[in-house]
Amino acid sequence: MTVSKDQLTWKGRCLDSDGVRFFNWTASSFEFAFTGKKAVAKIISDPEHWNKENLGWIGIFVSDLDKDYALQADSRIELSQKENDCVLFESDEKKTVKIRVMKISEDAFGMAGFAGLEIDGHLEVLPEHKYDLKLEYIGDSITCGYGIDGVWEKDNFRTDIERADKGYAYLTARKLNADYNMISWSGIGLSSTYVDPSIELPDNNWTMPRTWPYTDKSASLRLKKDPEVWEASKYKPDFVIINLGTNDQSWTRDKEERTLTFINLYRGLLEEVHRRSPDAKIICCLGVMGQLLCPAVETAVEKFKAEFPSAQIKTLVFPVQDEKDGIAADWHPSAATHEKMARQLSEFIRKF
To answer: How many Cβ atoms from other residues are within 10 Å of residue 267's Cβ?
Structure first.
């Protein structure tokens, strides 16, 4: 039996192009239930544009209909071909299961596009999951789950050690029984992406204010399409969590003029977020990899509140990661640190 994209349940900002549905953003996914012995999905990617360290990865979750999925993926698949026949489930006897396929590497590298699903049995009605909240994340590599399976001073970035399913954003959603969208990109900032200390000019070719408004600007450009503006009506979050500034501090370096630029751009993003989702509560996070711009974030929030006094917005400072909890690749937070962040953020949302 052939299953189309419209027979699946989708999560995240997905881009449709020429019959393929791309689910490139961190932790975006599709889900279905069936009775049978085997399920194989055809997933499109773009390995010709990447070395092996930057290929796309998906995680496969399989569960009985009446049970929740495991916290982390049961298996993972590297998208090493343009067309990948991904075995999602295989059994010697017929079983009734539900399956979730999640993009566990980030949008910045190898893509993942759904082009079809073949099952040897029949679809079942997927049990409705009633979420308590809807979350939207706007973040950088920390939100992507960068390097979680790696070790500082041993591993550099590779997509096979990037794990959205171990990141604070996904863990927070699970703790709160929340639906989510994640717009995150490693190295991204507001005034600048990450720059080496020897660089004095900002790198603002790819910043969050130029990325967040679109469904998937990167995929559109790779597919040689005009970027599609995201329709706010498709997803109305209860909370928008912004975790940006870690990369900007590589350029601002505590210099007043640069910090003011960051503040103004942050305030501008807050206005865009509020105008698109006026009923959403906004949480502005920062700190786990450095707190240099935490005061600047607070200033941006105060400026925004002065102009939009009815907006519900607060700041949250994460403690700087502790080496006792382990440090992941390229000095990024470990799985233990992400769990601590998730506990802190979950409690903050409950008490907001």
So the answer is: 20
Helix (H) or strand (E) holding 170: helix 168-175
What pTM did the predictor assign? 0.97
Q: Where are the alpha helices (DSSP H) in 64-164?
A: 141-144
Asked if 318 and 344 count as a contact pair (C-beta separation under 8 A), the reply is: yes
Q: Which two tokens stand for residue 237?
A: 């979050």
> What DSSP string runs through 294-322?
HHHHHHHHHHHHHH-TT--EEEEEPPPP-
Which tokens is 152 given? 């500082």
For 276, the enclosing helix (H) or strand (E) is helix 256-276
Contacts of 195 (CB under 8 A, 6+ apart): 201, 202, 203, 250, 251
Listed residue (178, 181, 132) closest to 10, CA to CA: 181
Question: How far apart are the C-alpha atoms of 286 and 243, rounded to whole Å?
Answer: 6
Measured CA angle at 111 (ends 143, 79), to 5 deg: 105
Digit-coded pLDDT (tens) for 20-31? 999 999 999 999
E strand spans, 151-279? 178-184, 239-243
- What is the rounded distance in angstroms from the CA atom of residue 38 to the CA atom of residue 1? 11
Crossing angle for the helix pair 335-351 and 168-175, nearest 10 degrees?
A: 40
The answer to whether 30 touches 9, Cβ cutoff 8 Å, is yes
Tokens 């990899």 sit on residue: 289
Is the Cβ–Cβ distance between 58 and 76 less than 8 Å? yes
Are 59 and 132 a contacting pair, CB within 8 Å? no
What are residue 199's phi and psi, to 5 degrees? -95, 130
Backbone angles phi, psi at 90, to 5 degrees: -150, 130
pLDDT tens sequence across 157-213: 999 999 999 999 999 999 999 999 999 999 999 999 999 999 999 999 999 999 999
Cβ(32)–Cβ(117) under 8 Å? yes
